[in-house]
Amino acid sequence: MLTYILDGGPIMWPLLFLSVLSLAIILDRVRAFQAATGDTPDLRRLVNQDLMDEKLDAAIERVEATEGPVAACLLVGLHRYRKMRDRGRHPEEIEMAVSKTMEDYAPKAVSGLEKRLNVLVLIASVSPLLGMTGTVTGMIKSFARMAEDAGLDPGAVSGGISEALITTAAGLIIAIPAVVAYNLFSRRVEEFNIAIEECITDLVGSISEH
After folding, report:
1. Which of 165, 164, 142 is nearest to 155 (CA)?
2. Would you tell me how many other CB atoms lie within 10 Å of the CB of residue 137?
3. How far apart are CA 131 and CA 71, in angstroms?
4. DSSP conformation letters of 97-136
5. H-type helices in the chain, by residue range?
6. CA 173, CA 42: separation in Å to the nearest integer?
7. Is-contact 160 142, C-beta < 8 A?
8. CA trace torsion 190, 17, 173, 146 (10° rounding)
9. Global pTM?
10. CA atoms within 13 A of residue 118's CA, in its CB half-sphere
11. CA distance 43 to 184
């Protein structure tokens, strides 16, 4: 590995930095999404059952013990529901207030999962460009050696060609996992957005029935 880095020339150092940064972000996001796995349909079902049984405090405690954006939105909605109910507000006013509160909070709840995803996009865009830059600089070195030696000695140009190929391959190797990871994480974020929408509908429906 060290031989490839050295043979790739100076462009390999920023590529190496980008590869480490990309791996760190991917691992960080994997942990973040794993921590949000407590958001399950079972949680929403149990909360709705608590509300039907007039156990609002139990529902709040259940949600507080769960991590993730869906649980966070549920908690905000339940607190709003309790506050409006204690004030003796009209049921339709309560439903509208709870729905709006959860909808307004949803982007903030999901933003924690979206952190640094834009950096993955940047890495996926910059890495191939750096690889192409290494290709150009490697070919420049090869032609310069050819001009100096006034011939086509393969040994004279092999170093520059090797640098060109190594940097090109490195740029692609870094960019491809970054693109794949970004798309997978973005899909998961969209799934959480859908779950939050369903959560809002379920909670408002339970309040309406109650």
Report:
1. 142
2. 17
3. 43
4. HHHHHHHHHHHHHHHHHHTTHHHHHHHHHHHHHHHHHHHH
5. 2-7, 12-35, 41-52, 56-64, 69-86, 91-114, 117-149, 154-209
6. 40
7. yes
8. 150
9. 0.79
10. 3
11. 24
What are the pLDDT tens digits along the chain (210 aa)? Answer: 555 455 556 788 899 999 999 999 999 999 988 888 766 777 888 888 888 888 888 888 888 888 888 888 999 999 998 888 888 778 788 888 888 999 999 889 888 888 889 999 999 999 999 988 887 777 777 666 666 665 555 555 555 566 677 888 889 999 999 999 999 999 999 988 888 888 888 888 887 776
Q: How many residues does the chain have?
A: 210
Tokens in use for 76?
Answer: 């905000």
For residue 196, with 0-12 CB atoms within 10 Å meaning exposed, 13-18 middle and 19 or more buried, which class applies? buried
